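Minutes, project check-in
Item: structure for the 90-residue chain
Input as provided by the requester:
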Amino acid sequence: MAETRLTNNGKKYSKSFSREVTFLRLLRFGFLLSLSLIVVYIYYLHLIGNLQQTLLDIWTTHQKVIISLSILITYSTIIFQLGVWRGRKR
C-alpha cells in the first residue's frame, strides 16, 4: 500500500530531487520542449515567408528517411493497436 500522510504513522522520509523526478517525466518534458521549439520555428519561418521553401528542401534531401520512418511508425502503431484490441477481447 502506498504511504500517504494519513498512513505513514509519523515516519519522516527525506525527499530528494532524484526521488521526485523520474526518467519518464524528464523524457516527457524534453519531448514537449522540443515539440514547442519546432512549432515556434515553423511559425518563425511562416512569418518571414520561407516556410514552403524550407519544407521542400527538407523533403528533397531526406525523402527516403521520411518515407521509411513513416512506414515503420505506421506498422508499429497498427501492430500495437491490434494487440490492444486482442487484449480487450480476453
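Outcome recorded: The chain has a mean pLDDT of 86.
No further action items on this chain.
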